[in-house]
Amino acid sequence: MAKNNNEVPINGLYDDEGRIVDEQAEEGRGENVTESVEEAAEVSLSKEELAALCKESVCPGCDVFKEAESIRLRALADSENVKKRLLRETEELKKYAGESILADLLPILDNLDLALAHTDGLSAECKNFVIGVDMTRKIFLDAVKNHGLETVQAAKGAEFDPEIHDAVGTVQESSLGDNQIAQVVQNGYRLKGRLLRPAKVMVNKL
């Protein structure tokens, strides 16, 4: 049927062949086309994109959810371990902050000990000087003890312990047992339980 130019359609428009086209029908077809495109787009998603969508709204029993939860828990555990390690290192740094300074002060104690070790046959005037040196040593030792420095146990007749003693030589004394300390050459020190310097000793070997 040919299209009459004077005719005005009531419910629609003419198509190219002169037929009246229903707008509602056209709209319905347009919606169907849109839905088909959306369905095609959903089908064309990659596995990674589908996994990402699944993680956003996934059921607790899904394998993807379990994997995501496992990753989250591992990340939390790693974060907690790092936090604990940093806290431990900070506390240890504070505890032994003065280690290098106290280590530099040890030669002063060594020289005072050496001076007091050679006091035989001195005059009365020199003995008074020795008393002053001994008092200075005690005051100095008390000061460093307040910062956690303590002397390593080492005395003549004590058993040699390689953990805290450093053998610088051997002697033979019948009055001492084997592997006992015969002489303390240099005192050793600990700082808050940590060995700062081992005691240097002569060990008896029979």
Strand content: 15-25%
Helix content: 40-55%
Task: Kindly name the structural category.
Answer: alpha+beta
Poorly predicted ranges: 8-12
> For the record, what is the CATH homologous superfamily label of the domain at 99-204?
Head domain of nucleotide exchange factor GrpE
Shape: elongated
Overall average residue pLDDT: 77
Look up the CATH topology of the domain at 99-204.
Nucleotide Exchange Factor Grpe, Chain A, domain 2
Please report the first level of CATH classification, the CATH class of the domain at 99-204.
Mainly Beta
Please give the order of strands in the largest beta sheet: 3-6-7
**Helical segment count:** 5
Using only CA atoms, what is the Rg? 46 Å
Give the tags.
cytoplasm, Protein GrpE, GrpE, GrpE_head, 3-stranded mixed sheet, alpha+beta, 5 helices, 3-stranded antiparallel sheet, Nucleotide Exchange Factor Grpe, Chain A, domain 2, 206 residues
Structure commentary:
The protein is an alpha+beta fold. It has a domain of 106 residues: Roll (Nucleotide Exchange Factor Grpe, Chain A, domain 2). 51% of the residues lie in helices and 17% in strands. The protein is built from 5 helices and 8 strands. α4 packs antiparallel against α5. The N and C termini lie far apart (133 Å). It holds the Pfam family GrpE. Keywords: Chaperone, Cytoplasm, Stress response.
Helix/strand layout:
Layout: E1 12-14, E2 20-22, H1 23-43, H2 47-56, H3 63-95, H4 99-117, H5 124-145, E3 149-151, E4 165-171, E5 181-186, E6 189-191, E7 194-197, E8 199-204
Parallel strand pairs: 4-8
Antiparallel strand pairs: 1-2, 3-6, 5-8, 6-7
Helix pairs in contact: 4-5
